[in-house]
Design a protein that fits this description.
Blueprint: H1 3-21, H2 30-60, E1 70-72, H3 74-84, H4 88-100, E2 104-106, H5 110-133, H6 142-162, E3 168-173, E4 178-183, H7 190-206, E5 209-216, H8 217-222, E6 236-243, E7 249-254, E8 280-289, E9 292-299
Parallel strand pairs: 1-2
Antiparallel strand pairs: 3-4, 4-9, 5-6, 6-7, 8-9
Helix pairs in contact: 1-2, 2-4, 3-5, 6-7
């Protein structure tokens, strides 16, 4: 199957998925999914080309008569997999002729070395996923709790100004700053970031109260409650809503906490040495991977 056929086939899957689940997920867009896929597919190919070029230079274009025989170990093979996406078997196919010619030989522990690196990689990935699920909070202190609450408001602002395709893709929050990943296919301009920033500061000024509800997970999904990593949550989930006295809902999201009781707390000075109220500021926006952006923000 050629690249065009694969892309066409994947496009049909996206179209079918949108048709089937559009009522459940109103923000679902096969067009956006195709755009992200095309970028990811192109990026993978370009990255793989770099990997194969490096393999050729290191293992294939080497003059066997000019150097001692080299050892190809499992760590090397895993490097090309983790860095360039080149599978173990493809790597071995690429260096097979060099082994036959005697330029290189496989380490006697090749399989064990590869498996060890693979398992280390899996363990690191699991730890990262667990941190994302926990909200990425460094601790449960007051300042960290404020910034965690601010990420809820920021996500609501991002969805308001970018669209309902935006969802949390990870976060890391300390007492000093919040790092927040979200789904979006392209760079977010400063003008839009300023609007999101203003949305959060307006929510802080509104003094929205925290409302905690517990409900069946499927009921929350059906109600369109915003949330990520649904599969990690129990059958009964906690939904946090921030609503002001005028009835405006500034944020409503599935989460495990912790959160402030009132958004005005986010504006309270973090140091007794100043009486100036804090403002929410988006400091930086950048790409994480195809279809995922990252912002760094703070209360200052």
């Amino acid at each position: 199957m050629g690249e065009e056929s694969i892309e066409e086939y994947v496009g049909l899957i996206f179209d079918s998925f949108e048709k089937q689940y559009k009522n459940v997920y109103p923000g679902l867009s096969s067009t956006k999914a195709k755009e992200v896929y095309a970028k990811e597919f192109s990026g993978f190919h370009e990255n793989a080309k770099k990997g194969f070029a490096e393999i050729f230079k290191r293992y294939v274009a080497t003059d066997a008569s000019s150097i001692p025989k080299g050892i190809i170990n499992g760590k090397d093979a895993f490097y090309y997999f983790s860095t360039f996406g080149i599978p173990r078997e493809t790597f071995l196919d690429s260096v097979r002729d060099s082994i036959k010619l005697g330029s290189f030989e496989l380490s006697s522990s090749f399989d064990i070395e590869y498996r060890t690196k693979y398992e280390e990689h899996q363990k690191a990935s699991r730890l990262g996923a667990e941190q994302k699920f926990k909200g990425g909070l460094a601790d449960g202190g007051a300042e960290t709790t404020k910034l965690h609450t601010a990420t809820h408001l920021m996500l609501a602002g991002l969805r308001k100004h970018l669209g309902n395709h935006v969802h949390q893709a990870g976060s890391n929050v300390t007492a000093e700053r919040a790092r927040f990943d979200f789904t979006h296919p392209e760079k977010v301009g400063r003008e839009t970031l300023d609007k999101v920033e203003q949305y959060v500061n307006d929510a802080i000024a509104a003094g929205a109260e925290r409302i905690l509800e517990e409900m069946p997970k499927e009921e929350a999904k059906a109600a369109g409650i915003e949330g990520s990593f649904w599969e990690k949550y129990p059958d009964v989930v906690s939904v946090y809503t921030f609503k002001d006295t005028n009835g405006t809902v500034w944020s409503q999201e599935l989460c495990g906490g912790p959160h402030v009781l009132n958004t005005r707390e986010l504006g309270e000075p973090s140091s007794p040495s100043t009486s100036l109220r804090a403002k929410f500021k988006i400091l930086k926006e950048e790409a994480v991977s195809a279809g995922v952006r990252r912002v760094k923000a703070a209360l200052a």
